Structures are given as structure tokens and as C-alpha cells.
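Whiteboard transcription, Tuesday session. T.W. wrote the C-alpha cells on the left side:
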């Protein structure tokens, strides 16, 4: 496992497991399997409805709490200072934990203009030691700039959709310049057409790896934290087997040329669902 260090000194596994769209009862089994396979970063959220299942898995595992890195998120309908603090308490209780390692704002929901107030609640949670790091999801440059202007603590992480067809180059550059780590969700474009891309398949054949492994390796080599979602044991093992090879500069250039700005998920400036 590769580890990276956030801007506040916290170490994070660079590859973890996302549990979006995993039903609560399946989440427990999937997280137990992931921990047994070697994963230490687990990414959940209130809106996923599976914090209880994740918590039950954590309670069963033999891995020490210090080795784990657990992320959850405040949902749009809970944004606001007091409501965020309450939502955090609820998430912590469901997870059965004394603290989380990373707490994120799930979406900026610009229509409601409450993400600054929400982030100030995250700052309080951080200062109180209830979360080891704080950050955001789906934030564009303009949202990050406002947070850095109006709040005290710079986000450690910005979790966004990122894959070879949506490489987020401008956002990556901005985050790197400001010491914010980009974390990729839907890193395999939700298992859709990017896995069938002829360039990806050709590189995979050359390395004796699968297209998914090539894409995950590309994420790692672009200095991104990556959280592929799966509930299948064999896929968990496959996704973790990406530390024994390296893509060449030519490989990286070929993948860089695939960028087409193609989103598979919602646009952050238009996602105002509560």
C-alpha cells in the first residue's frame, strides 16, 4: 500500500474502498472482506444509508483503530452550522466510533449558499479532535477559493469524479498548488465504457494487467487518492494488486490524451438536491 500525507500531517492509504450504492446489509460483509484483503481506507456517507453496516464490520475486524482511515460526509439537507454538528453526531453513533479520520461536505449545493457555514462546523469538529482531517466533495475551484478566503482551515481533501475521460486537470493543478489532495470517486467511470477503451486495453495487455488495474495505477501515478467501489472479493483483490508495476511516460501520455471532459455523475454547479 502506498501512503500519502495530507496538509495537516495525517497519513492516508492512497487506495481504499468506496461503498456508494451498497445496501446496509451488504456493506458489513463487503467491508469485512475488504479489511481481510488488506484495505484500510473505507469511504462512506450519510446518504449512502450504510454507516451502520460499515460500523458493524469495523467492530468485527481485528485491525487496530489506528490502522484504519474512515471517511464519511454530511449530506445536503443537513448543511448549516448546528445541523452539521448534529448530523456528525448521528454518523459517529451509527459507525460506532469515537472519531472519524476524514469528514467531508458532500456537495457545495451553490443554490442554497450554505457550504461556508457548514465548513465552519467542520472546523469546530476538527479543533475538538472529533475528526482527524476535514475537506469537501465535488467542489469546483470557485468553491474552494471561497472556503479558503472565508474559513480558517484549508481543506485537506477534495473528493471528485475523476477517470481517464474526466481527468480534472485544471482542478488537479489548483489543488496541488494549494496543498489539497484530490480523491477520485467513480475512478473506473462506474465500470462503464472507459474499461473498453482500446488505448487502455492495449496498455493493459502490454503489462499483463486488467484495464481496471491500469486505470487505478494511472490514478496513483497522478498523485490522486482513489476509492473504487466493489462488493466482489475477487475485484477487491484485483483492485489492490496495482503496486507491483508502473506505467511508463508513454503510457501516461496516451492516457492523458483520452480526456474528454465527460461526466458520468452530476455537475457540482447544478446538483442542488436536498
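and on the right, the sequence the group agreed on:
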Amino acid at each position: 500500500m502506498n501512503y500519502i500525507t495530507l496538509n495537516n500531517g495525517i497519513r492516508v492509504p492512497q487506495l481504499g474502498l468506496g461503498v456508494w450504492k451498497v445496501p446496509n446489509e451488504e456493506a458489513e460483509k463487503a467491508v469485512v472482506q475488504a479489511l481481510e484483503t488488506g484495505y484500510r481506507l473505507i469511504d462512506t456517507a450519510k446518504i449512502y444509508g450504510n454507516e451502520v453496516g460499515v460500523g458493524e464490520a469495523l467492530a468485527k475486524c481485528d485491525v487496530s483503530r489506528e490502522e484504519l482511515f474512515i471517511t464519511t460526509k454530511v449530506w445536503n439537507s443537513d448543511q448549516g452550522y448546528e445541523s452539521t454538528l448534529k448530523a456528525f453526531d448521528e454518523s459517529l453513533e451509527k459507525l460506532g466510533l469515537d472519531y472519524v479520520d476524514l469528514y467531508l461536505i458532500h456537495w457545495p449545493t451553490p443554490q442554497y449558499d450554505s457550504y461556508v457555514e457548514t465548513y465552519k462546523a467542520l472546523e469546530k469538529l476538527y479543533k475538538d479532535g472529533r475528526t482527524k482531517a476535514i475537506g469537501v466533495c465535488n467542489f469546483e475551484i470557485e468553491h474552494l477559493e471561497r472556503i479558503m478566503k472565508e474559513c480558517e482551515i484549508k481543506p485537506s481533501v477534495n473528493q471528485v469524479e475523476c477517470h481517464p475521460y474526466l481527468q480534472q486537470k485544471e482542478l488537479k493543478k489548483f489543488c496541488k498548488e494549494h496543498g489539497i489532495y484530490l480523491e477520485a470517486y467513480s475512478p473506473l467511470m462506474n465500470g462503464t465504457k472507459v474499461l473498453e477503451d482500446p488505448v487502455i486495453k492495449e496498455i493493459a495487455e502490454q503489462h499483463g494487467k486488467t484495464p481496471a488495474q491500469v486505470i487505478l495505477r494511472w490514478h496513483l501515478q497522478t498523485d490522486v487518492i482513489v476509492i473504487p467501489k466493489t462488493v466482489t472479493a475477487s475485484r477487491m483483490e484485483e483492485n489492490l494488486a496495482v503496486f507491483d508495476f508502473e506505467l511508463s511516460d508513454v503510457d501516461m501520455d496516451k492516457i492523458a490524451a483520452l480526456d474528454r471532459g465527460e461526466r458520468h455523475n452530476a455537475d457540482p454547479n447544478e446538483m442542488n438536491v436536498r
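Someone added at the bottom: The mean pLDDT is 97.
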